[in-house]
Amino acid sequence: MAAELVHVVDDDPAMRDSLAFLLETSGFGVRLYETGTDLLASAATLASGCVLTDIRMPGIDGLDLIRRLREAGHALPIIVMTGHGDIPLAVEAMKRGACDFIEKPFDDEVLLGALRTALSPGRTAKAANPTVQDFLQRVGTLSERERQVLDRLVAGATSKEIGRALDISPRTVEIYRAKLMAKTQAPTLQDLVRRAVLAGLA
């Protein structure tokens, strides 16, 4: 059986080399592209696999790349790599059709797990996904204030910004954030945002 192919798009040569080594030693096939333009130029060969792209790149950035691939009819799963604090960009990427995002610097196993999920033949539709339904049920247990904090977190607001909007202290925001993450069983803010986007809450 042929190795699953990952199309890596990143303008950082060191990052491309590092990802190529990790993916090849983990059993994936790899194709490397320096820019989104390079990937689009090879679009005719994108019959299988998964696209792993940085979100901030010169020229065609990750968001524009997703849009162009989808407009061209490519249905390959797309995972975006974001920098710290790029939650709004990650949300926008998923709205445009990315299936997942991971935040740099990331643990190797987190990336490999995301790729395996994206490439799995049994990827379920969002609405039918039991993990999405479970998340929505848990969101339903949040208090009104916790839900307000959740909505603003998913929009990319900081604790200070949320505090100003809700007229509470940043420390109080942190308390609400800890409570809502416990109730939704989201281990990290990244995971919380991912689940919220998949559930249609963003």
From TrEMBL:
Residue list for modification 4-aspartylphosphate: D54
Ranges of residues in domain HTH luxR-type: 135-200
Entry's Gene Ontology BP terms: phosphorelay signal transduction system; regulation of DNA-templated transcription
InterPro entries: CheY-like_superfamily, Sig_transdc_resp-reg_C-effctor, Sig_transdc_resp-reg_receiver, Tscrpt_reg_LuxR_C, WH-like_DNA-bd_sf
Signal peptide region: none
Keywords: DNA-binding, Phosphoprotein, Transcription, Transcription regulation, Two-component regulatory system
Chain ranges of the Response regulatory domain: 5-119
Pfam families: GerE, Response_reg
SUPFAM superfamilies in UniProt: C-terminal effector domain of the bipartite response regulators, CheY-like
Single GO MF annotation: DNA binding
Name this polypeptide is given: DNA-binding response regulator
Organism of origin: Methylobacterium currus
Lineage, broadest ranks: Bacteria, Pseudomonadati, Pseudomonadota, Alphaproteobacteria, Hyphomicrobiales
Encoding gene per record: fixJ
